[in-house]
Structures are given as structure tokens and as C-alpha cells.
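Follow-up to my post from last week.
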Amino acid sequence: MHLSLALGLSALLFGLGVYGVLARRNAVAVLMAVELMLNAANLDLVAFDAWFKDQLHSGQVFALFVIVVAAAEVGVGLAIVLSVFRLRDTIAVDRLRMLADRDPVRVGDTEPVP
Amino acid sequence: MTGADVVFGLLGVVCFASGVLVVTARNLIHAALWLVVCFGALAGCYLVLTAEFVAWVQVLIYIGAVVVLMLFGAMLTRTPIGPVQDLDSGNRPVAALAGLATAGLLGVLVVDAFRAAYVDVHGTAVGDGHVMGTAIFRYYVLPFEIASVLLLAALVGAIVLTGQRRANQAAPGEH
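User reply:
Got it. Predicted complex:
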């Protein structure tokens, strides 16, 4: 099997993830796009493991660790999203502008913290 | 062009197409369900690349846990079930440009660097449970333990983050 097939698919998936993170407004959808990027990295790890014929199977073990870290990240990320939703009643990431340095007060945005 | 190439190519097409739907779907629930298809196709790709255990972990953790967690998150934040118009923010063209640039850069760089590389899927040891267990518990014990501590910390952190208000409300009642 050509290694470039796996690498090309991984690059495409990573590009999709970048697009999703930047274009999505809903924080849960942003988390989904982050998962796409993590999976692109996993595919690279597994593909290089198979190509290199690693005796220690480092690539596959690292893919497992990435999956563990991704599970932890999704748990904490959703907890943050839930507490933001409780505090602000919205999870639209472009409406949470309390930390923005440009045009902090705009009609329709949440009020700036005094 | 071997059978592995064909199978991987087909799975890759499924994976990429469902990935496109994940980031463009108007309905958040549909996006989560397309994520299941994408991860399932990726698990098939792992199987082609002889990573059997990783494939099953992918099915168990990603499809079984992460996507269900996403659906919980979508429902707990009262996301409308039907299609909504404002799921995408205003910077879609810039985001498309950035995504295309990233994919193009990565693709050209990595594919060009490993153009002649060929994976001999029949000559490699299949990464089944026995092989992976040996690798993890013989050579990667310390990272494994650190990963378990990380999961514990993430669990405690998630509980603390989501249980804050309840603790504040319960405090006056105790006095």
C-alpha cells in the first residue's frame, strides 16, 4: 500500500478540522472539528508505524495515548462549554467577546463585565 | 495497485466525504452522526494499516464515548434539533482559505517527501491485543500510568467545572 495515500488523507482531514474550528460558531461543533484534527494526527502515527515496521510499535502506542488525551480533552471541553452556557446562556464562540480587545461593546453582544 | 490500496482509497473517500459533512452540516445532531461515519471509516483505515487494536479502541472510545458525549453536550446546551442557519460564523471564506492552505501545505510537503514509500502490509506484525499489550506494559508503562493520572485529573476537573453552581447554592442552605 502506498504510504502517500494515508498521508494525503491525513492532510485533507487536518485541513477539514482547521476549517471547522475557524468557521463553526457553536462550541460543540468546534470540538468536533478538533476531534477531526486529532484523528488526522492518529492516522499519520499509525501509517508511519506500519511503514517503519517498528518493533516497539511506538506509532500505535502513541495513537492510543492520543486517543486517551482526546477523551480527557472532550470531557473537560464539554464541562467548560456547559459552564459557559450556564453563565452566558450561549455557546456561540463569536458572541463571547469579554476578552476581545476590539469593539468590546456591540449591539446584541453580552454586556461587558464591569 | 493492490487490494489494500483499493480498500484504503474507498475508506478514505468515505472518511473525507463524511468529514466534509461534519464541518458543513446545518444540523448539529447530523454533524455528530456523520462524525460516527468518519470515525468508523478511519477505524477501517487502521485495520488496513495492520493496527487492529487501535481500530477497536477507535470504535470503543471515539464512536462509543466521544460522539455520545458530543450529543450530550449538544442537548444540554439546548441546541435546536432541526437545521439552524447560524451554525457557521461570518468568517467562512477566511476559514476555507486557511483550511485549504493547511491541507495543501501538509499534503504537498508530506506526500512529496514520502512519494516512493511503500507499506508492506503483509510483512508487518499485526498490532493485535497481544502485541500492543506487550508494547505498552513492557516499554511504555510510565506513559501509561501518566495517562491514567491525566484521565483522573480530567474527570475531577470536569466534575469541579460543572458542579460549581450547585456547590454555591448548597452552601447557604447548610447554615
